Amino acid sequence: MSDRWGIIYVPMAGVKKRARRWHQIKTVLDLRGVQYDYVQSEDYGSVERLARMLVDNGYKTIVIVGGDRAVNEALNGIMTSSVENLDDISLAIIANGVGNDFASFWGLGDVDDYKKAIDCVIKGNRRRIDIGYCSFQEEDSLVKRYFLMAVNIGLGARAIEISDFCKEFWGKSNPTYIISMIRLFVERTLYKMHFKVNEEVVNEKIMTLCVGNSRGYGMTPSAVPYNGWLDVSVIYRPQFWQMVQGLRMLLKGRLLNHQQVRPFRTKKVTIFDAQNASICVDGKKLNYSCPLEITLMPEFLNFIVP
User: Fold this and answer.
1) Contact 165/8 with Cβ under 8 angstroms?
2) Which of 103, 134, 154, 227 could form a disulfide with 95 if both were Cys (CB 3.0 to 4.6 A apart)?
3) 41 pLDDT band (50/70/90 cuts)?
4) Domain locations in the chain?
């Protein structure tokens, strides 16, 4: 199986003609003479199991046709496989979701340009990337959740939860999603958080905390997944007009210039308490207990880049 791609097709949420989408991708794969085996996921939860199965069965190139959530599930499947040495395993993306931030970081986020993504995998340019992870104790076992983009705690996590829920059922243009997001940002809930970053201990009310291995949905715009560092953005409670300004700066990649944002760069963040705040790891809600440690493994996995 070492020369065959193991492809996991994750249908795009809100798209009715899912079979047609796969047929388009399959046609290009066949025209390019790619040797592959493919499985279609039943839901996001099955992606982790399928990725683990492919790696355990000897596939070296794991291609995810999906969005950020699917890529995260696949990453966790690879990382929890029975293969002890992952040096020969490569992860690749063909964007197919309503959220493709990690693919966009590498210039592969256009879902209509799947031919470019396929050609990228064929060329096989590999780069070692950092893998972040959260870890906490649950009864007698250590629980780990791996990520490529970011861990969001507080309002940022709530925004992702609402966004993902609405996109899954109604796509991007659901008015309920827009109303919910406006309400969320008007309320600007504060969470009492107690955490340590570098040698500094923070114990106060903040609105959201983002720990990014890459751009992190714009919350950590300077983060890159290959420098061995985590970027941290601590966002306090801005006034409403500052919130509007912050959203504009977020879209332009200049969030760190906002007066209510405090940035850090670190190797590890320890969360002692987060006042029952929601936590999302690459967009997936995490059921956690404190203390929670967020750190990374530098240059740990091969990723196929343009």
Assistant:
1) no
2) 103
3) confident
4) 5-125, 144-299
Quickly tell me which residue has 């609402």 as its tokens: 162
CA distances from 292 to 83, 151, 189, 274 (A): 26, 11, 22, 10
User: What pLDDT digit, counting tens, does each position of 276-300 carry?
Assistant: 888 999 988 898 999 999 999 999 9
Can you tell me the distance from the alpha carbon of 81 to that of 71, in angstroms, rounded to the nearest whole number?
A: 15
Phi first, then psi: give them for residue 210, nearest 5 degrees.
-125, 130
- Taking alpha carbons only, the member of 154, 162, 180, 159 closest to residue 237 is 154
CA dist 246 and 240 (Å) reads 10
Contact 193, 271 (CB under 8 A): yes
**What fold characterizes domain 144-299?**
Tumour Suppressor Smad4 (2.60.200)
DSSP states of the chain: -TTSEEEEE-PPTT-S-HHHHHHHHHHHHHHTT--EEEEE-SSHHHHHHHHHHHHHTT--EEEEEE-HHHHHHHHHHHHTSS-S--TT-EEEEEE-SS--HHHHHTT---TT-HHHHHHHHHHT-EEEEEEEEEEEEETTEEEEEEESSEEEEEHHHHHHHHHHHHHHHH-TT-HHHHHHHHHHHHH---EEEEEEETTEEEEEEESEEEEESS-GGGTSTT--TTSS-EEEEEE----HHHHHHHHHHHHTT-GGGSTTEEEEEESEEEEEE-TT--EEETTEE----SSEEEEEEEEEEEEE--
**pTM greater than 0.85:** yes
Q: What is the pLDDT of residues 188-245, one digit of tens each?
A: 678 899 999 999 999 999 988 999 999 877 789 899 999 999 999 998 876 655 566 6
Residue 265, pLDDT score: 96
With a cut of 70, say whether residue 167 has pLDDT above it: no
The reply to whether CATH 3.10.110.10 applies to domain 5-125 is no
